[in-house]
Amino acid sequence: MPLVPSDDEVAGFQRAIRADRASASGAIKMETIQTIARQAGPRGEVVLRRRLGEGPSTEELIINGVFAMDSSETSTERLLGELAVQSGRAERVLVGGLGLGYTVAGISAKDVGAIDIMEIEQCLIDWAHQGVTATLAAAGSDSRIRFHAADVRLALQGSYDGLVGPWDAIVLDVDNGPDFLIHGENRALYTEAGLRAAYARLAPGGTLAIWCQRPAPPLLAVLVRVAASTCEHIIEVSRGERRLRYAIYTLSRPKDFFG
Q: Where do the DSSP E strands lie in 98-201?
């Protein structure tokens, strides 16, 4: 089932995100916005900013003019990593999307041997090594992490040279969900074929985890067709005066699977 949002839906999501940020920070006119880093690339401009107001400062990532995430509420990104490695231990983890590094922070807190991060924007990897923010610096200095400047779909399809599964956990945090894509071509990740490819790269007992900025019933329906172990985790969070419902979807491969 295709999961392609209309232009009106995307515009609506972006307006809601802006409203959330304004609500969380109070009067937005009182904020000062600093550009921490900026890089023009083949998919558009990537901008890392810091918003300064009356409360704690907030980091914000904008990719090709699309809001990707900020640091005002990161509990669900960390929870994504925790749900992906529910046992607390994993030999290998594959992460699609570095972002501001909060999902990786949740994974790094576990007993994990190696973490492969597929990030299509080279500049985010560079900023991690440069330590432009504390969370990115933590990822850049973690000896267990290997960065790959490439589309995570290549690894899931088995066509990325030098990176072969299986993984004990695969985490997809490349978008705000299938109905709020950072790049339009990412919609292939959320098709049945794309999700089956991810499932096939899991080790026995491994878990696939996907972050969404709101519940996504069409995605849930596809995941259930892929694996009966699919779970929908709805998390309510506060951003200023607003209550939001984020979603994390997980499915696991049977431990005795050897096919």
A: 111-118, 145-148, 167-172
Greatest distance between any 2 Cα atoms in the chain:
59
**Within 10 Å of residue 148's Cβ, how many Cβ atoms?**
19
Which residue in 257, 195, 253 sits closest to 221, CA to CA?
195
By the 8 A CB rule, do 188 and 53 touch? no
Task: Name residues of the chain where pLDDT drops below 50.
Answer: 1-7, 9-29, 259
In a 3-state reduction of DSSP, which class is residue 42? coil
Supply the pLDDT for residue 161: 85
Contact assessment for residue 17 and residue 182, using Cβ atoms and an 8 Å cutoff: no
| 7 Cβ contact partners less than 8 Å away, ≥ 6 residues apart | none
Q: Which pLDDT score, from 0 to 100, does residue 21 have?
A: 46
CA distance 33 to 53: 9
- Nearest 5°: phi and psi at 201? -90, 0
Question: Would you call the peptide bond into 217 cis, given omega within 30 degrees of 0 as the criterion?
Answer: no
- The candidate with the shortest Cα–Cα distance to 34, out of 132, 138, 140, 131, is 132
pTM: 0.86
Rounded to whole angstroms, the Cα distance separating 192 from 186 reads 13
